[in-house]
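quick one, 440 residues, struct below
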Amino acid sequence: MQNSLHSKKNFLSILLLTAISISNISAYEVWIGLHCTPKNAGSNPAQWSITASKVEGLNCNLAAGKPAIGTPNENDIPCVSLTDWGNIVNKYSVSARRVSLIEIPRSSWYHELRTTMPVLDKYLSNRFSEADKVGYNITRIMFYENRLGSTGPIYKWTNAEIQSLRDWLNSNGHSDVRLIWNTRGNSNAEHTMCENPLVDDIMIESSAEYVAANTGNIQSLPPWIWSNPLLSTKKLIFQIPLQNDPYGNPNGYQNLRRLIVWYGQKMAAAFMQSPRVVFMPVTYNGGTDIALSKKATFAFYPEIESSTKYSNTLTGVVLSLIEQREMFELRSELPTNEDADSFERKSSTHVFNPKSTSEIEKAIKIYPNPVSTDKVFFDLSSINIPCNSIEMISISGCILKSVATQEKKIEFSMKDFEAGTYFLRFGFENQIATKMLFVN
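---
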């Protein structure tokens, strides 16, 4: 009986390994924000079904949209109930719904200036109950400081409050939920919060216009995060709002894609090809009339105008980042703003060879495996292309350790890792190879 169970576990692990290998041939991830998604999208799923099937994660912000007069989506109907939102969420793939985050502004639960708000325990219970009703699984919580109105006080998180958030999750069956700090600046205080051991992942929330203007010295923040060894296991999630003149010239689709091209030029290929990186377009409510304010809620769909042309919509730009991922990852030629501005729907010229990946995986030598000591060794000497990174990943898909290296023989510390099954992801110049590691 035990042997049978062990065989089943190994079989399931192999299936998961295969899924991870296939899904990470192109490395950065693409998520989407649900903010302002119209109710009518639920009755027109064919208009965004490709995106729904391919996107890899959701920001489940259930804010009702307020489309502006004079825009393509001016007649959209907002979602106003959990039933409306459930009809939207359930159009996404099961895998996307299993990688969902929620946002917690500090003002949303009890504060000495907001004594009528629910205490943290009650607030969190309500949010998880809401997720169950709508149909998504909370795997991350993004928390941030906020101001109500333009002149009110800033509601700040204390370290004790972050610890209380972590403790509640651990005590209520949600120890696997990761905490994301939403950083919107580049100050010493923001750096300290990013390095906080209670923070599992980091989000940079900044529009293309803010990055171009280098507001708050935001351009130097990604390099600082990426080069900081204290942050090497934390995902870097770019939440990119699309509401500033989305129908201007350049438009929302073009501005966001230009930003992704700029990140490639600034951060280089190893960054763009890393599964630690997530790009997540979102839209917020803007003005009520496009003639009075250039800020407007970006249209959600259609994702394509034809089989060969993307649309200037939220799902259009999200789909383009997925389908043209290899171009943005710098796997062939360096993309230009002209490439970013193009609505042409075509695949990249670079094609991966699954047989080559299989041969690389066979050539990677790991010893000992299973591991019973505090060290494991990797021998890549028979592989003639350089390996740029090695990541250790849990069964649940969390990156536990990341090492940048181009050595052929690597010593990997296993201190503090519990017994179990892990995955090792090797990032080569144009391939991702995955191996299984057993720890006794």
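The first strand starts at residue 29 and ends at 30.
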